[in-house]
Structure formats: C-alpha cells, structure tokens
Design a protein that fits this description.
The structure holds 2 protein chains of 2 kinds. Chain A is mainly β. Chain A is built from no helices and 12 strands. In chain A, strands 2, 5, 6, 10, 11 and 12 form a 6-stranded mixed sheet that branches. A 4-stranded antiparallel sheet of chain A has the order 3-9-8-7, with no helix packed on it. A two-stranded antiparallel ribbon of chain A has the order 1-4. Chain A is globular. The N and C termini of chain A lie far apart (about 40 Å). Helices cover about 0% and strands about 50% of the residues of chain B. Chain B is globular and about 40 Å long. The chains are: A mainly beta, B mainly beta. The interface between A and B is medium-sized, with 29 and 28 residues.
Chain lengths: ~120, ~120
C-alpha cells in the first residue's frame, strides 16, 4: 500500500516571499513518480510539477521547485516569489509507473498568499 | 480543445435514488479513473479503467459501479446513494505510458454530489 502525508493543513505567505510545503510518502514500488497538483478555488486540478523517482536531479518549473530526498521519502515543494494567484489547495502525491496509473494523494495543504 | 468533461457539475438528490455521473474525454486516452475528494483526505481513487471493457477497483470502490463500453466514456454509477457518498468527484484520464513512464493525468472540473 502507498501512503502520502502532508503535515501542514494550512499555510500562509506574504506576496513575493518563498514558502515550502512538506510531503512525506511511503511505497514498496520501485518504479514510481511524485507530483504536486494545485487546486484553486475554481476546483480545477492543475499539475504543478512531477519528479521521476529514479532521477536524482530535483525538478523545477519556473517558480516551483522540489526537494526530493528519496532515502528519507520526502518530497517538498518550494514556491519562490509567491503571487496572489498561487493561493490554492496543494496536493502532493505518488503515482505508479507500471500498469495502472494509480495515484495516491495526501490530504492537502491550503496555501494563502497575502498581499 | 483537449478536455475531460463531467456532468452534472452539481447534484442534490435523496438516499436510494440511482444516479449516474458522466465522464467523457476527447484525447483518445486509454486510462481513465474516478476519484472522490473529502476534507483532510485528499483525493481517493474509486475505480479505474486501463482500456475498453477493462476496469478495476481503486481504494474506495464500495457503493459505486463503473463501465467502459467506449474508449471516450467512463460513467460513475451510484445504484443506491447514501449520505456518506456526499463528496466532490473527479474524473481523470491519461495516455498509456510506455517504457515505465506513465503520462500525467488530466482532470475534469469536478462534480459536487449531495445525498440527503
């Protein structure tokens, strides 16, 4: 079984500042990937960033980057230069790369960016 | 425009009245799945389908049925809805992964179900 834990139900950050969202996971799979989805108030699910577990280099997408610590099973998301539009619920998760693209999500972190 | 379309977006109904939430994708994706989202629990997978006529249970399948008669459609059926199925539901699809690399899932806009 796979589990994903987000220990911060809510966070806030001032506009233009940097914030880090925490995520830990557990899996017995060898071929998996990790991701962060953003869910704004419109409730759309928007893929923010994805990291293949076999890659050592941390993934980056513009202002979003991850700190992937495979041995510690940790996958945190750093948002630099926070913008008001970053206000959303953020879900960390784990996906299997074998047959059956099953995703396991954490409980979510609600991020508020303050002006 | 590539999209996953769910209907209805909102539904209030009563216990025991059968309902179907439709899901359709126009990207020719092989893989489709249903999730429910509840506060503090994130999204949990209900059922998934790897192709036409191939479906399997996810983490929380009790009380739900699905079918995959066509590649583009993957309806979620609640035969006898109960209040504990009040939730926000998402359908998602993705292309078949090759070489051990699954493609990102595309999500619909969600269906808010309230069972009284």
């Amino acid at each position: 079984a796979q589990t994903v834990t987000q220990s911060q139900p809510e966070m806030s950050v001032q506009e233009a500042e940097t914030v880090t969202l925490s995520c830990t996971y557990d899996t017995s799979e060898n071929n998996y990937y990790l991701f962060w989805y953003k869910q704004p108030p419109s409730r759309q699910m928007i893929l923010v960033i994805r990291q293949e577990a076999y890659k050592q280099q941390n993934a980056t997408e513009n202002r979003f980057s991850v700190n992937f610590q495979k041995a510690a099973k940790s996958f945190s998301l750093k948002i630099s230069d926070s913008q008001l539009g970053d206000t959303a619920m953020y879900f960390c998760g784990l996906g299997r790369n074998n047959a059956g693209n099953m995703l396991t999500f954490g409980g979510g972190t609600r991020l508020m960016v303050k002006p | 425009e590539a999209q996953v379309t769910q209907n209805p977006r909102y539904l209030i109904t009563v216990t025991g009245k059968k309902l179907t939430v439709t899901c359709s994708q126009n990207m020719n994706h092989e893989y489709m799945s249903w999730y429910r989202q509840d506060p503090g629990l994130g999204l949990r997978q209900i059922y998934y389908s790897m192709n036409v006529e191939v479906t399997d249970k996810g983490d929380v399948p009790e009380g739900y049925k699905v079918s995959r008669k066509e590649k583009r459609n993957f309806p979620l059926i609640l035969e006898s809805p109960s209040p504990n199925q009040t939730s926000l539901y998402f359908c998602a699809s993705s292309a078949q992964g090759w070489g051990g690399y699954n493609q990102p899932q595309h999500f619909g806009d969600g269906t808010r179900l309230s069972i009284l």
